[in-house]
Specification:
This protein has 390 residues and is of the alpha/beta class. The protein starts with a strand and ends in a 9-residue tail after the last strand.
Length: 390
């Protein structure tokens, strides 16, 4: 299944473009599901049909779904209280009534990730050929896309698999140590979370997953797109297209509107052929006719994957070079730290901890350089770990 994630600066028309993208694909006969995490029904307003906690058919080949974060949060809390009942009783804690609970910040994003997983794993009549996901604005979207990988890493540090494998020894260890050992529900919950997060990570890493960026062509939009490209590259997520939204027609005067058009023209020139201009309709798009008038680009059947290749230069220079494309990165805002078999990469406001390819784990970092938007990290073989040739 093809998955297209749509994000951009706040107020740039992300949800409208997501709706128009889904509608265009459905009009071409592609079974499409469009997802949104907004509490308000912005998606439904654009599509001209109410959306909510259950998937609703909007038209031929088109389904819309706006998962209910409140209901999901209440269900998770009730499940947690049931599993932790013994601990809560020992502490004398009173249980919360699910009906009195409101979602914590971030619940919408977590609910969207879960819906993304469920939609990608659906089979039979519930399956779709294209999944269009209306993500939050760029900063929140990048944090959301990093969440599955980071949470799985935290879980593995807190409860390593080898510690979970020794669950049968817990009663004896508890008696020997004289302290209570983690309860069975904790291990089961950790394993369940790890499986759910792994499923989401698999969707994001799938070759059929890409990102469509949306922005109004102006200084703020240009800055946001520059940051988005860098953050997405660090996550190895390919950009399928850039939609320059709400492009104004050329005016005949030199008033305020004329200056705005000049500003848009300048940014469009900087974006070049990478941007697909979508005209301003003069009003907020509502319904199928308005969405069709936006003329958003069709979804590319394939996208070029983001690759981080390792170049073998042992014969010539005695090193291996790991190439990390980071468009828009600034040399003074880059930082690298080797920690065991991981490399901590910081690029501007973004940070990622990546596992080293197996061949580089037997090497030491020998330097790094940024050239033409690509970070090149040199690794020299460690004589103590590298196989010797005779």
């Amino acid at each position: 299944m093809r998955t297209i994630l749509i994000t951009g600066p706040g107020g740039s028309g992300r949800t409208t473009v997501a709706a128009a993208t889904a509608q265009r694909a459905a009009a071409d006969g592609v079974r499409t599901l469009v997802l949104s995490a907004d509490r308000t029904d912005t998606l439904g307003a654009a599509l001209g049909a109410r959306t909510g906690a259950r998937p609703v058919t909007v038209g031929p080949c088109l389904t819309a779904w706006r998962p209910d974060a409140a209901a999901g949060f209440r269900d998770d809390l009730a499940g947690f209280q049931d599993r932790a009942s013994t601990v809560l009783d020992l502490l004398g804690a009173s249980r919360l009534d699910p009906e009195e609970v409101t979602p914590l910040p971030g619940a919408e994003e977590l609910t969207l990730l879960r819906a993304l997983r469920d939609a990608a794993l659906a089979e039979g009549a519930a399956s779709h050929e294209l999944l269009v996901v209306d993500l939050p604005p760029v900063p929140q979207a990048l944090a959301l896309l990093a969440l599955p990988e980071e949470l799985r890493r935290y879980l593995r540090r807190l409860l390593p698999p080898e510690r979970q494998a020794a669950r049968a020894l817990r009663p004896m260890l508890g008696r020997l140590a004289g302290v209570p050992m983690p309860a069975e529900w904790l291990y089961e919950t950790t394993a369940r979370w790890d499986m759910e997060l792994a499923a989401v990570s698999a969707v994001l890493a799938d070759p059929g997953t890409c990102v469509r960026l949306v922005a109004e062509p102006g200084p703020a939009g240009a800055d946001a797109i520059r940051d988005a490209r860098l953050g997405l590259a660090l996550r190895a997520l390919p950009v399928e297209s850039l939609v320059a939204n709400r492009v104004l027609p050329e005016p005949a005067d030199d008033g305020p509107l004329g200056r705005l058009v000049t500003q848009q023209r300048k940014v469009l020139g900087e974006w070049g052929g990478a941007a697909r201009p979508v005209p301003h309709l003069g009003h907020d798009p509502r319904g199928a006719d308005d969405l069709a008038g936006l003329a958003v680009p069709a979804v590319n059947p394939e996208s070029t994957p983001v690759e981080w290749p390792v170049e073998d230069r042992l014969a010539a220079d005695g090193v291996l070079v790991w190439h990390l494309p980071l468009p828009g990165a600034i040399r003074d805002e880059l930082d690298l730290v080797r920690r065991g078999d991981e490399l901590v990469v910081t690029a501007g406001p973004f940070r990622r901890i990546v596992a080293l390819p197996s061949v580089l784990r037997r090497c030491t970092v020998d330097g790094a350089a940024l050239r033409d938007g690509e970070l090149c990290v040199r690794f020299a073989p460690d004589p103590a770990l590298w196989p010797q040739t005779h």
